[in-house]
Amino acid sequence: MEPHLIIELVMQYLDRQPESDKLRIRLYMALRQAILDRTLPQGVKLPPTRMLAADLAIGRNTVVRAYEQLLVEGYLEGRVGDGTYVSDVVDAASKPATPRRLIGTRREGLSRRGTGIVNSAASSVIQNGAFMPGVPDVEQFPFGLWRRLLAKYLHAGQARLLHYSHLGYGPLKVALAGYLRVTRMMVVDPKQIVVVNGSHQALDLCARMLADPGDRVWIEDPGYWGARNVLSAAGLAIRPVPLDAKGLAPIPEDWTEPPRLVFTSPSSQYPTGIVMTLDRRLELLERAFECGSWIIEDDYDNELRYDDRAVASLFGLCRRQRVIYMGTLSKVMFPGIRLAYMVLPEDLVDAFVIGNSELYRGGRMTEQAALAEFIDDGHFTAHIKRMRGIYQERRDILRNAMESCLGDAVSVSGGHAGLQLLYRFNAPVDDAQIAAQALAEGVVSRPLSMYYADGRNVRHGLNLGFAAVPERQIPPAVATLAGVIERAL
Ligand SMILES: Cc1ncc(COP(=O)(O)O)c(C=O)c1O
Fold first, then answer.
1. CA distance linking residue 131 with residue 124, whole number of Å
2. Average pLDDT, stretch 178-206?
């Protein structure tokens, strides 16, 4: 694992430690937690104390004392100043796969729901670099422009923007409606748009407003684990539905027990990239209407399409008001903006506005105002266009490097849109082990198996994000990854 990656991880863990503690204690706790979480796995060489101290802008003695404490306790081995490594004590004490899958065994003090959330958690503390999937290159964001726009709306004259927002910022909804008309062929009244703090909140709102605990929800298998976790935490009964080349593929018998909700990403299925065909879309809409099911359309990365024109949204195709559309600013602006939006059938709007206010409260109006102007003045489409060019080049470099290093050992899918490519292994290997080993050598990936809810269908592979990786870093990272894979084959 590269020293800069380790330092970034340490910083993230440090941020979570109570400010009131002494710096030495915070650093010790941060490193210890990263080791216990296996974010710093066995065998990783920690950066020299001088380097870590300089990067964290703290005294070297502080680092030396934190390392020494961890050495005494057995978390580290080696000698300070002569290479300090994460020891195997944690790995030997417990097997990594078990704690996350212990659904049903209650954790001390937590509810069953809380236990389930913790045990199925899959979020990553690493958010950039080779090859974190699903994340944009935030370094490329037009900071100066955004700062000016925020400043324009963040002052005493605009104090009203600091209130709770029940309805969202009107001009933003107008701007989004205009954008959706042009890019997604959706003719919507701005009133149908509800602005939320990210797609996860939109999903949670759908689960609570449209379903009751125990109701069935269909999810794509493999599919976005984050959606699965949110829907399951809301008490819904998860029914994984396999995919075929046309997209979500329920068999006719599945409709004899119709779902209350269907969660799907038809324009670019996550993580496979499959685009749902028109006949499958029409069939899904028809059956959902007959059965009284609601369809939640996750259109998370339609803006980043490289090789062909975007397919129209399911929402735009539906004449019967059965689709709730979700868009997010995370992939085209930056994930930390925490702004996403839902487009609702007219009859649901009032109830969802109330539900959103009651459950979460609206806010972030300063950011919403800045975003409205960012869109209206053409910066949004210009930024998307620029990023599309950058990402397309990175995608091609990754694809070519994988092809020349691994050839027939893997098969690629996706990549016509979005921020990642999915590689399936053509021989039986354990993708979780490969991902863990690659991480120890500094390369991040997500094993394909973690996207499956139904253990019977699992295939192994790696989901590789190319967007947040500078071009020159891609080939060496692929060479490292290929080395790990070849050793496993
Ligand atoms: C398929 C998919 N949908 C939705 C999201 C979540 O987006 P948000 O940041 O708006 O919660 C992600 C985030 O990684 C995603 O991969």
1. 12
2. 96
Query: Whats the size of the chain, residue-wise?
Result: 489
How high is the pLDDT of residue 468? 96
pTM: 0.82
Among 318, 351, 379, which residue terminates a domain? Answer: 379
Ligand 1: residue whose CA is nearest its atom 7: 199
The amino acid that residue 210 corresponds to is L
Separation of 24 CA from ligand 1 center, angstroms?
36
Does some domain include residue 19?
yes
Ligand 1 mutation pick, 128, 194, 201, 224, max ligand atoms within 8 A of CB: 224
Name the residue of 229, 300, 326, 329 to mutate for ligand 1: max ligand atoms within 8 A of Cβ.
300
For residue 27 the two structure tokens come to 């650093």
CA 216 to chain CA centroid, nearest Å: 24
Q: Which domain holds residue 100?
A: 96-124
Compute, in angstroms, the gap from residue 199 CA to the centroid of ligand 1: 6
Beta strands in 16-126 (DSSP E): 76-78, 84-86
pLDDT for the residue 97: 36
Query: What value does the mean pLDDT take over residues 213-221?
Result: 98
Segment 135-169, tens digit of pLDDT: 999 999 999 999 999 999 999 999 999 999 999 99
Structure confidence at residue 95 (pLDDT): 40
| Whether 211 and 314 share a structural domain | yes
Structure tokens given for 30 = 């941060």
Task: Give the atom of ligand 1 at the shortest distance from the alpha carbon of 329.
Answer: 10
Let me know whether 76 and 193 are in one domain: no
The total number of structural domains in the chain stands at 4
Q: Is the CB of 335 under 6 A from ligand 1?
A: yes
List Cα–Cα distances, 25 to 51, 62, 456, in angstroms: 19, 9, 45
pLDDT tens digits for 91-105? 655 443 333 443 446
Taking CA atoms only, the protein residue closest to ligand 1 atom 3 is: 300
**Contact between 469 and 394 (Cβ < 8 Å):** yes
The residue among 332, 350, 379 that closes a domain is 379
Q: Is the CB of 229 under 6 A from ligand 1?
A: no
